[in-house]
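Forgive a beginner's question, but might I ask you for the amino acids of a protein and the tokens describing how it folds?
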Amino acid sequence: MLVADDQEIVRTGLTMILNAQPGIEVVGEAGDGRRAVDLARRLRPDVCLFDIRMPGMDGIEATRALAGPAVAEPLAVVVITTFDLDEYVYAALRAGARGFLLKEAGPDLLAQAVHAAANGDALIAPSVTTRLLKAFADAGPTAPPRQPVEALTDREEQVLVAVARGRTNREIADELYITLSTVKSHITSLMTKLGLRNRVEIAMWAYETNRNRTRG
């Protein structure tokens, strides 16, 4: 993976923590967003971990350059910051980030976020997930929510709600008594029917359409 933070002591600390985790190896470091984007395009890491506040090009712009809607082969990006601000979270997710963490997160949560991003899942700091999506829903969408090209099945609706509540694939499988591969198939089907790119967008769509309140 690639780590980008403009503070060398933070970058070094994150790298040490990540390299100590099973299955994770930091293959590159950058002190600003532009360098991070250049390195990421050259190295094609499984996951990028970006600070938001960086000189030249910030973490949001860097995320958009590597994972935004116009990117043909997007990389997995997890954004990390000191600041628990909704506008940062929202901007990061809209830019294509697969995760959002605060720097106070411990090694376990950091490793979970990295593994989740590598596996196509998304992990957002628990302290901001519900608040963020509720604020997003209360503000109302800028345009009417897109409609599925084909009606969702009952099981897809259940998976949709679980994704909106921040459940991982494994947790969804356990809750619905289905296999992990079946969960992945349902999520792929949801993305296809809704024209979305990842589970974060699925969660946002659930809130836009009040699906998050339909069950349980």
